[in-house]
Design goal:
Blueprint lengths: L12 E7 L6 E6 L4 E3 L2 H4 L12 H4 E9 L8 E4 L17 H6 L8 E6 L7 H7 L7 E6 L6 H19 L7 E6 L9 E4 L5 H11 L4 H73 L15 H81 L8 H6 L3 H10 L13 H8 L2 H8 L17 H7 L3 H10 L2 H4 L4 H7 L8
Parallel strand pairs: 1-4, 6-7, 7-8
Antiparallel strand pairs: 1-5, 2-3, 2-4, 8-9
Length: 505
């Protein structure tokens, strides 16, 4: 991370991929669609804040990616070079962000931050601390640049003071990994020199950083995926525990309702019978002995037998309504218990799915990552095999679908009858790759080109296009020269053959 600089040089983050497998520098840019495209020198010359620049890079690129040849020390390390955070406080018209916002956007991607400060400032500034506070838990190293501008005594004092300032500002828990000073022109042999509070050499510091940043992007994604499943599993376990507790309570409630219903039902039957005995039989017996006529109009209403039967019926109706209410309570408790059991089964099924899909998605991510990694390695190898644009031969340009390089080759003059190691000439190689744009360009100059010429495999361009089933190219060729059909073997038979990939591939 380079927060300061003499002159602003870019408005997007630049990713420097170091690898001992890289044989030369390859510069790419990620466009707004997320695709990586090769960048030529003209584009690279425009990657700056200059008002004279005719290309606003941030309007078409999200970031720049540079593959660099590397020593073993930096092998596998990616440096993220950001726009200086204090170059400008104004928003760039290209992407409506400030350089500071662009620099901060890369903090979450970094395993460690190298925070570079001009040693002539003498100390870490308040702006440095303010931005570093956004790094949260990311380890950081303070590097004072231009070490050659200060004496050894001054360097030690500045470095020690910076370390103490970080401790006072952030506390011991967020102390820097190291505070160092560096210059690329200060050693006795005219090379770089390095001073550190903790490490004896820059190599030791880099190796230490590589160790703490050992988690690959794949490991990081797997950990995130595992965290998601752990969180879901924890939530599911909590819900299941709640359901189990609720089930226990509902079981007790259901049992209570059942007992109450049975008890009240029996009690009601006994109560009605006892009430009938008392109100009818015993009461009548007493009335007879007392020589009362229960049907006498002057007798108290409760003495009348009819009224006593009505009272018993009313009591019986009330007891029946109580039994019905108890029955409803029991049905409700049983329904709640049943729903709770269903929730438990669903949650148990959920846990089963979590366990099952944790493995499936982890394996799927592994397979996707390995496939993507293989494609990246393959693509990087292809890019490394392509020489600089001015040195690219026409067959390589066709293979790489590099139209600009193809134009350059044609402008220098190309013998279209020349063949590559697989026996294809330029025309048949274009047909084999299915490149309509390049074929169209050749056919625009058909008066100067013999498109019927055969390659070393014995095929002309139309025959190759037919074998590969490229109908668009076949149509382009026949419209350009219909006589080519008569000069070719049966296109129907060639299309049915379709064994072209066996010839040299």
């Amino acid at each position: 991370m380079l927060p300061t600089g003499i002159e602003p040089v870019s408005v997007v983050n630049t990713y420097l991929n170091c690898s001992s497998k890289n044989k030369k520098v390859v510069v790419k840019g990620e466009n707004l669609s997320g695709d990586l495209v090769l960048l030529n020198q003209e584009v690279l010359d425009c990657i700056r804040h200059s008002k004279d620049s005719e290309v606003n890079v941030a309007c078409v690129l999200n970031k720049i990616v540079i593959d660099l040849p590397s020593s073993e020390l930096f092998n596998g390390v990616t440096f993220i070079d950001t726009p200086g955070y204090n170059n400008s406080s104004a928003r760039n018209t290209e992407n409506s962000t400030t350089d500071r916002e662009m620099a901060l956007s890369s903090f979450n991607e970094a395993d460690a931050i190298f925070w570079c400060v001009d040693i002539e400032n003498g100390a870490i500034t308040e702006k440095d601390f303010e931005v570093l506070s956004k790094a949260e838990d990311t380890p950081y190293v303070i590097v004072f640049t231009k070490k050659d501008k200060k004496s050894d005594g001054e360097i030690k004092k500045i470095v020690d003071q910076a370390y103490d300032d970080c401790i006072r500002r952030f506390g011991e828990d967020k102390a820097p990994i190291d505070v160092a000073a560096y210059s690329d022109r200060d050693s006795e042999d005219g090379g770089s020199s390095f001073y550190s509070r903790k490490f004896d050499s820059l190599e030791e510091l880099v190796e230490y950083i590589k160790e703490i940043g050992g988690m690959t992007e794949y490991d990081f994604c797997q950990r995130k995926l595992n965290d998601i499943f752990n969180n879901e599993d924890e939530l599911s376990v909590g819900r299941l525990k709640e359901y189990q507790e609720r089930k226990s309570k509902l079981s007790e409630k259901k049992s209570d309702c059942m007992n109450r219903l049975n008890h009240n039902k029996n009690a009601a039957d006994y109560l009605v019978e006892d009430l009938r005995v008392v109100m009818i039989e015993i009461f009548d017996d007493l009335m007879t002995k007392a020589d009362y006529d229960p049907n006498d109009a002057d007798v108290d209403p409760w003495v009348r037998r009819k009224n006593r039967f009505e009272l018993i019926d009313r009591v019986s109706q009330w007891l029946n309504s109580c039994k019905e209410e108890d029955g409803n309570d029991l049905n409700k408790a049983q329904d709640e218990f049943k729903n709770c059991q269903q929730s438990i089964r669903k949650e148990q099924l959920c846990q089963q799915y979590i366990s099952e899909y944790r493995v499936k998605l982890s394996n799927a991510m592994r397979d996707c990552y390995n496939a993507a990694k293989a494609e990246v390695v393959k693509n990087n190898a292809r890019l490394q095999s392509i020489a600089q644009q001015e040195d690219v031969d026409v067959f390589t340009a066709i293979s790489a679908d590099n139209y600009d390089a193809f134009l350059t080759c044609l402008s220098k003059g190309v013998d279209l009858s020349q063949c590559n190691a697989a026996g294809y000439n330029v025309m048949t190689w274009i047909a084999q790759t299915g490149n309509n744009q390049m074929m169209s360009l050749i056919l625009d100059h058909k008066d100067k080109v013999d498109i019927s010429v055969k390659d070393k495999n014995g095929y002309n361009v139309l025959e190759v296009a037919a074998i590969c089933h490229y109908k668009d190219i076949c149509q382009m060729l026949t419209e350009a020269d219909n006589s080519l059909v008569s000069k070719s073997r049966s296109l129907v038979e060639l299309a049915a053959k379709n064994d072209f990939f066996c010839m040299g591939f």
